[in-house]
Amino acid sequence: MYGVVIPKEDEKVVSPIENDGCLHPPSDLGKFKPYSLPSKKVDLIVLSPPWGGPDYLEQSEYDLSTMLSCGDGIKLVAAAAAVADNIIYIVPRNTIDKQLTSLANILGCKYRIENIYINNKCKLKIAYYGNC
Fold first, then answer.
1. What is the pLDDT of residues 87-130, one digit of tens each?
2. Cα separations (Å) of 51 from 2, 15, 128?
3. Is the pTM of this model over 0.85?
4. In CATH, which of 3.40.50.150, 3.40.1360.10, 3.90.226.10, 3.40.50.300 is domain 37-130?
5. What one-character DSSP code corresponds to residue 127?
6. Alpha-carbon span 130 to 107, nearest angstrom
């Protein structure tokens, strides 16, 4: 089963996503549900919340608990863990590594953090939680 979960402030993208069969599964495989998590247990959830615009780059460190424009990034992962055994969390390059590590301790799972480079410059981090 496929689905798309999107934060409320991004509801303006609902129509393009629902009508784009090339990028998303056909409607018979899953329904777009803004503001919701799956009601059944799923294998994987990929989280890529809005980072709050380019201003985050002016900060030396990005705090997941206070700087995400959609709320607390720590609570976001905890909510996803309630319905998924594996989580991929895409975050800004200046995210505090200790926060990403502490999430694994909170969830009680294995983790891996990767820095993603483009043209020899770190652009973002990806944290994998679960059976990574």
1. 999 999 999 999 999 999 999 999 999 999 999 999 999 999 99
2. 24, 22, 18
3. no
4. 3.40.50.150
5. E
6. 9
